[in-house]
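On to my pick:
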Amino acid sequence: MTKLRKDAEENRSVILEAADLVFASQGITVPLDLVCQQAGVGRATLYRHFPDRHHLIVALLEQGLEETAAKAVELGDRDDAFFVLLRFHAERIHARSSLIDYWRVLDRNAPEVRRVRERFHQIFSPLILRAVEAETCRPDVQVEDVTLLVSMLGSALRGRSADEQARLSLRAFELMVEGLRPRSMALRAVAK
């Protein structure tokens, strides 16, 4: 029984990795047979884990959230963790452009979407509070603003190539950080 569970976990992981690669290179509307081919599994195995494309994409979004959560834990109690985690997103967002586009059109009231958004907020909330307390972030920044910030980073996906998208997302991040700083810090930076 344990071996079956381990095999199922491995298959799920391999499918997610394959879907991430295929969707990143060809978009999320590709035939799921390409995901099966990349993963080296049959259609029945794919559908046993993910009944449809939507569930597969939501699982990829959740996997990305867990990577974000792991990065937040790695950052520990750093006062700049909020900004480092935003940069982490800026550096990686171009590789997940298809997922970002899908996220934008999802029904915001669907239970799985609410679950993803709540988890996202759980990850960022303590980091924002710490940055505000350290006076490195404007005191009016709310956790809901992070969704807007990530959407703003996503606008860099309009670049024509992966390199241009990466450059634009980092530039958007740089501009964004200045807007997140407390007014007194921004004025000091201008005075220099």
Summary: The mean pLDDT is 85. The chain has two domains: 1-51, 52-191.
